[in-house]
Specification:
The chain has helices spanning 15-37, 49-79, 86-109, 113-137, 146-174, 181-213, 220-243, 248-271, 280-301, 310-344, 359-381, 386-414. The chain is mainly alpha-helical. The protein is globular and about 65 Å long.
Length: 434
């Protein structure tokens, strides 16, 4: 692996990112259970309470938790700065987000307005604590890299969509909707998908692909211009939606073009990597590139069908692109964190990063996940099949949880033994608590 440009001396406690990573698949399991309990026809309507609940169980509980955990780790490692009181901040934020997500799910699913209103406050507080803490930490950045710019941009989008989400959720809580509710909901979902998650993934890829896969580095134009061009496209899309809705497709094409170009670049760089060893993480990145290509074209074409296929677009981009990459990154990041923290404490006789997760289990999990995604698309046209693919999805998420916990159990077992070297004399800035 290539660790060039990394600052590991300010790494956060292991517990800070891990608590988010461990929780994410559990919400994936919950989302699958909700699919089983819901009317398949209702899930084909993007604005039905069932669809909103399932979508946010994934968007907040799975996607959001992984992104926050990853940024907790990336900010000090890639940007060289540390979140103030990071362990306390992540503990409070995690607790608020878990409670808020559960309140939202059960409040909206059972039409309990008080739970829904409480969810608006809890989720807003949980996200804003993390977002503001990270933005404040960026004040100490000395060298602003392409990844740092992408993280800052994604956090600005996150700040805006959280405020919009609080407004939208509170509207369901009080049962009153403004005349711009659907426009707000559309902006909220598009900016969350492309502005927060999409831009963050692009920024992370600048370092992750060369570091973990020894792939060729991204070219200067891609690292310096693409995030700004996507941001311009998303702002243009917003303005056109407000003032000239009939032309909004132009901005969609603009945004879709750069994400398609990124997906193509990722695919080509994986093919050109210096160590062409294939595993589930590579499969996830490659499948994500394919799903993003299909998703971006579907997102644009959907405008000509009065958005009736938007659920399919969400599956392709949200599940196929965003969550695929996140799962691929989890399989690399979690073993790396365990290995790094144990080495920092003086343990040398430990499994390698490649041996901490059973490769067969990760491949089985990948296959089940892809089958589920394809099945969800098929279920849009044949709703009676949804239950089958909801079950494969639940099993996939259960295996993902097992695969994440396995390295943590290695850490817990190893930490009980005596290290080969006494590292107490060295200051690594690393805590080993879980």
């Amino acid at each position: 692996m290539d660790f060039d440009g990394l600052s590991v001396d300010q790494a956060p406690p292991l517990s800070a990112p891990i608590r988010f990573f461990v929780t994410a698949p559990l919400f994936g399991i919950l989302a699958g259970i909700l699919m089983l309990l819901s009317d398949p026809q209702s899930l084909m309507n993007r604005f039905s309470p069932e669809t909103i609940v399932v979508a946010h169980a994934m968007a907040i509980g799975a996607f959001g938790f992984i992104m926050l955990g990853a940024m907790t780790q990336m900010l000090p490692v890639l940007a060289g700065v540390k979140i103030a009181k990071v362990d306390l901040v992540t503990k409070i934020s995690h607790a608020l987000l878990v409670a808020g997500t559960l309140f939202m799910i059960f409040g909206m699913y059972n039409s309990v307005s008080k739970l829904t209103l409480a969810a608006s406050v809890l989720l807003g507080a949980g996200f804003l604590i993390m977002i503001v803490s990270m933005l404040l930490a960026f004040r100490g950045v000395v060298h602003v890299t392409a990844s740092v710019r992408a993280m800052i941009t994604s956090l600005v989008f996150a700040f805006i969509i959280v405020l919009m989400g609080m407004h939208l959720l509170s509207s369901y809580g009080i049962g009153k909707f403004s005349s711009h509710h659907l426009l707000f909901a559309n902006i909220h979902s598009v900016w969350a998908t492309f502005g927060f998650a999409g831009v963050l993934i692009i920024g992370a890829a600048f370092h992750v692909l060369p570091m973990f896969y020894v792939a060729p580095r991204f070219k200067k134009f891609c690292k310096q211009k693409v995030v700004w061009l996507i941001t311009i496209g998303l702002i243009l899309w917003l303005l056109l939606n407000i003032f000239a809705d009939s032309y909004a497709t132009i901005a969609k094409i603009w945004v879709a073009m750069f994400f398609w170009a990124f997906a193509t670049t990722v695919f080509l760089k994986l093919n050109a990597r210096r160590r062409p060893v294939s595993d589930a993480t590579v499969w996830y990145w490659r499948s994500a590139a394919i799903f993003m290509t299909l998703g971006t074209f579907s997102w644009v074409i959907n405008d000509f069908y009065d958005t009736q296929y938007i659920v399919i677009v969400s599956v392709l981009i949200g599940g196929g692109f965003i969550f695929s990459i996140m799962q691929g990154m989890l399989y690399k990041i979690v073993p790396f964190l365990i290995w790094f923290h144990l080495n920092a404490k003086g343990y040398m006789s430990i499994p390698t990063m490649n041996d901490m997760i059973d490769k067969k289990m990760s491949k089985v999990q990948f296959v089940l996940y892809i089958v589920s995604l394809v099945g969800f698309v098929i279920s849009f046209f044949i709703p009676s099949l949804l239950a089958i693919f909801a079950i494969t999805f639940i099993v996939s998420m259960a295996i993902l949880e097992y695969n994440i916990i396995s390295p943590i159990l290695i850490y817990a077992k190893t930490i009980k033994t005596k290290p080969e070297f006494d590292m107490s004399a060295f200051s690594m800035g690393v805590e080993g608590k879980i």
